[in-house]
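## Example record

The block below lists the input lines for one assembly entry, exactly as stored, with component labels intact.
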Amino acid sequence: MNRLLLSVGVLAVIFIAAPLVIVVPMSFSNARSLQFPPPGYWLGYYQAYFSDVRWLQPTWNSIIIAAGTTVLTMLLVVPATFALVRHRFAGKSVADLMLLMPLAVPHIVMAVGYYSFLGKLGIVQTHLGVIVAHTCLTVPIAFLVLSANLKGFDRTLERAAISLGASPWRTFIHVTLPILKPGLVVSALFTFVQSFDETVVAIFISGRDAATLPRKMFDSIRQEADPVIAVVSTLLFLLVLAGIVAPPLWKSLRARLKPPALATADHQP
Amino acid sequence: MQASITRLTERPTLWPWLLLTPLALYLAIFFVVPLADVVMMSFTEPKLTLSNYTHVLTGTLYQRVFINTFATALLVTLVCLLVGYPLAYLMTRVSPRTAMLILTLVTMSFWTSFLVRTYAWMVLLGDSGPIIGFIRALGVEQPPRLLFTRFSSTLAMVHILAPYMIMNIYSVMRKIDPVLIRSAQSLGAKSGSLFRHVYLPLTAPGIANGSVLVFVICLGFYVTPVLLGSPREQMIAGLIGHQIDEFLAFGLGSAMAVILLIITLTILTIYHRRFGLDKLWG
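Predicted structure tokens for the full assembly:
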């Protein structure tokens, strides 16, 4: 049993890794179709991506929309998370559940709803329309990350500040926010990535003018299997790689560069 | 101590309501109203009848799509389990360094856009891809068509959803006390019965979590079946998109969307009653 499980496990690792490994060489291929292994290598499709407005415009749209979504989501979620984590009131568990609802509804259902709803508001196929829709979809993730951080918050630090005479506002700015900063950054990052990657709602509501990168990729894969997709895929994949590998690497690098005495002194008052 | 903390956090003020109101209003307008719009359209488009529902619930095409969706979701969940369980087990048995490496791989797969992963499977399974090439090299003159079949879409969905299964099962497996296993062994449990009677029941919560999550996401999957699947074997989400995009049949599309929503919420409600929804994504 043990051996069977372990050998299937090794096969499973290969299964998970194979598709991730294959897109990188594909992006350097000079084939016009999905040939693997590639007949030859060149950088032509990278040049095509970086000089083609039909790819750059959706990339730019996605960045604007994800940034807008992140700002709006954080403005709404940060105060709400404080209310839900730090206060107890009637209807709190209902509110908790309501915030998670957008995770439970299939995106295709929301796509149908937004198609008609944003149409009535006259903001279908605009950046604003996609931001409005994406904000609803990213609320649960931002809330889950932030509330997990806030629950672990040591409130004696705030009480210490108050007892030393700081006003609640000063305490919030100089004690609460700096301690919560990593949680806020991760929450914002998750929101950004989720909006940047969101495909289904964007396919239906972003139209031609506000087409996001995932929508462009979807159309491209469906219609012609443009080899530039491999370039975009590689770039997206490298971003993920950087996001996951860079933080621990940076940490160990800093730990190594910093003399140990100084590193411990950091935590002294 | 407990009492003083509760007193501090329980001062009845208006603050929580003030802080919560903007988000509550936002979700009411931009989440609940569009959702209600879908329900409305399912009854009123093109005119006020139940005909959309009778059409969707009795038409052979729709029934076939519903059955196909359920069968696919079940199959994907099962294969995810067959892939995810051994992989999670492997992670608990190798050195911490290797486990970390495998976990990084799974995390990377999870964070890579599923369009990228769908595209990768198009390359892998394509007519001039490595797998067909390998079959040809074995001497098969006419290799089977892999792309745009039920096989290709199922395989890609398994790959895309497997991380959910793996992470859920692994988080349970790593917490299992090795003493339990050793004591079962010392009491004479053989490898097979040790697994069946001790290890499998201990990992059941992870299996349940992962399976519910994978099944529910798979029911509403749009992108991968549309891009990689056979056009003759659509899933619900694909058909909804088709009705909206091609035929502008908002009534029929909405009716199907409402049915999909009811099925999804029913499964999640049952799950929530038993385990609590917040644990699912925790």
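Residues 19-51 of chain A form one domain. Chain A touches chain B through 91 residues (CB under 8 Å).
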